[in-house]
Each structure stands twice: as structure tokens, then as C-alpha cells.
Amino acid sequence: MEISVVIPIFNEEANIHLLHERLVNAVTAVTNDYELIFVNDGSKDKSLPIIKELSAKFSQVKFIDFSKNFGHQIAVFAGLEHAQGNTIVIIDADLQDPPELIKDLYTKLQQGYDVVFAQREQRVGESWHKLLTAKLYYRVLNRLSEVEIPLDTGDFRIITKKVKDIIVSMPEHNKFLRGQIAWTGFNQTSILYKREERHAGNTNYPYSKMLKFAFDGITSFSNIPLRLATYLGFMVSFVAFLVIVYTLYQKYFKHDVVQGWSSLMVSILFIGGVQLICLGIIGEYLGRIMDNVKKRPLYIVKDSNCK
Ligand code: UDP
Ligand code: MG
Questions:
Q1: Whole-number Å distance between alpha carbons of 8 and 39
Q2: For 26-63, how does the pLDDT look when each residue is reduced to its tens digit (9 = 90+)?
Q3: What residues sit around ligand 2, an ion, with C-beta below 5 angstroms?
Q4: Is the Cβ atom of 10 under 6 angstroms away from ligand 1?
Q5: Residues 138 and 193 both lie in one domain
Q6: Which H helix or E strand runs over 242?
Q7: Same domain, 160 and 47
Q8: 13 CB near ligand 1 (under 6 Å)
Q9: Is 97 in the pocket of ligand 1 (CB under 6 A)?
Q10: Which end of the chain is more exposed for a tag (fewer CB within 10 A), N or C?
Q11: 153: which strand partners?
């Protein structure tokens, strides 16, 4: 098999038919030896029956049906685990990633690369605050971590089987695939494209999910926030020390002890706040350690026609 296409699906009933049609056209321009792996991530709409119908009609269409919603990254991961191709394409189902680009990705890969990701030179129909926070976030992440995660990329990319096998062997629970793929090294490059608007339906990434994803990215690639907590602790202790000296001076040399309620309040609140921040940072890491220590399966398959 030459190409496997992995497509995570969460409530995409209005997109699947058109997506399938465009995918078939795009992939057959490269090879007839391919598979399309639709991973149904607990959709509540008609996505699953549509996928099953397609798989009954076309032997290239495979499906994996999760027992519930496990999240976008896990859905992609499950697809990777079942992919049999020499090359694997990861693509969103909402047609924001144009399937026609697969040919260009594939051609570039043949020039001796192991990863070719699609980099957005333009994003249509995204709110300005999403663009701004995304930009800021990746700048910060690249500062904090040793892996260089390319700016303006999603998971839309093509990778070789070699890279896929490494990713599949990484058991961590809090997946940040674009970071993990960057981390593997090898020859990676990008091609530019214009990101379209979602074809139908609504985004399945509300701010709450995005925030969790953002923390996953930072905590899996950097220990600096933990160290930051320590630095912050030292800094605050230093300031507190100065305040203590000042207070004692006031008390013994100025005999001026009636006042000071406000400074007391300020310092207590300040130190309390900093302590909570530090605890929170430790908690973020601790929770993720818990996730991994529990050794639960990453996902549960209810039904599938993959081997
Ligand atoms: N998705 C998924 N599980 C989820 C959320 C999203 O499989 O819990 C899929 C979704 O169907 C789509 C892709 O992940 O194919 C990207 O999601 P979306 O388009 O909602 O994200 P955005 O483009 O708004 O960041
Ligand atoms: Mg989208």
C-alpha cells in the first residue's frame, strides 16, 4: 500500500461525502493503492452511518468507531496505529485542509524527506483572537522547548512509515502530535498553502479544549514552567526578606507599628497568589504523570473494519 489517509471525525456529517469525493480524486492522482481511514471520535450526528455506507461501497474506505469521544489527537493516533501505507497523510475532515494538496505533499516527500507539513500562508475565516493566540502560543512554546515546532502548521502533513512507526511507539497519553513529529528529527520540510474556511458545521475546538491542548504541548516538551515556579519562589522570598527588614526597622527604630495593615494584607495576598500559581504548575505536571501511570488504554474501539 502506498498512501494511507487518516481522518479524525467528530460530528462532520455535512462534510464527509464531499471530503470523500475530493480525497479520492486527489489521492488517485498519485496512486491507486491507497486507504482512507475514517476515525469516528464519538460523533453524535450521522457521521458513522455515512462512513459505514462509504466503506460498504468502496474497499479503500476503512473505519474505526470509538466507544466515545476521546479527542482529536487520540483519533489521529488510532488512525496512525492502523495505517498500512508507506506514507501517511493526516488531514482534517472539515475541508479546511484542501485534499488537492496531497499530490504536492507527496511529490515533495519523494525528494528525500520524511515529513512534509503544510504551512498556512493565509487563514480564511478564523477569528483574529484565534490567530493572535495561536501565534503567541507557538512563539512561547518554541522558546520554552528544545523542539522547534514550525509556526502556522496544524496536523495536515505527510509522513513516511519510518516516522509513523516511531510516533506509534510513543505511549504518552497527552498527545501533541505536531510536536512529537518535530521531535523525531529526520528531514522535515514544508509547503505553503491557503487554509480554507470550514466547509460545514462548527469548530469542535472550543477555547476549553484549546487550552488543554496548549498545556499538553508545553508540559510534554518543557520543564521550564516547573523551574519558573522555583525562580518565582526565590524572587518572592527575596522581596519578603526586604519587607521583613523594613518592618523590624520601623518597629525598633521608629516605634511606628500601628500602621502597616495594608502592607500586611498586600504581602499575604501576594505570597498566597504566588504559592497557588506554583502549586498549579506542579499540579499540571502531576496530573499528566497520573494519566500515564494509570496505564489506561488510549482509546476503546467499538467497531472497525481495519485488520
Ligand atoms: N475532531 C475530533 N475529535 C474532537 C474534536 C475534533 O476527531 O474531539 C476532528 C474534527 O472532526 C476535525 C478535526 O478534528 O476533523 C479538527 O477539528 P476542528 O475543525 O473542529 O478544529 P479547528 O479547525 O477549528 O481547530
Ligand atoms: Mg477545522
A1: 5
A2: 999 999 999 999 999 999 999 999 999 999 999 999 99
A3: 94, 96
A4: yes
A5: yes
A6: helix 224-249
A7: yes
A8: no
A9: no
A10: C
A11: 119
Ligand 1 close to Cβ of residue 96 (< 6 A): yes
Ligand nearest to the CA of 96: 2
The grid coordinates of residue 172 equal 504518552
Both 243 and 157 in a single domain? no
Residues 52 and 144 placed together within one structural domain of the fold = yes
**Domain residue limits at 55:** 3-205+299-304
Evaluate if residue 5 carries a pLDDT over 90.
yes
Atom of ligand 1 nearest to the CA of 41: 7
Domain count of the fold of the chain: 2
Q: 180: burial class by Cβ within 10 Å (0-12, 13-18, 19+)?
A: buried
Q: Whose Cα sits closest to atom 25 in ligand 1?
A: 205
- Which pLDDT score, from 0 to 100, does residue 256 have? 66
14 and 155, same structural domain? yes
Task: Determine the atom of ligand 1 nearest the C-alpha atom of 69.
Answer: 8
* 57 and 180 in a common domain: yes
Q: Report the C-alpha gap between 252 and 248 in whole angstroms.
A: 6
Q: Give pTM, 2 decimals.
A: 0.80
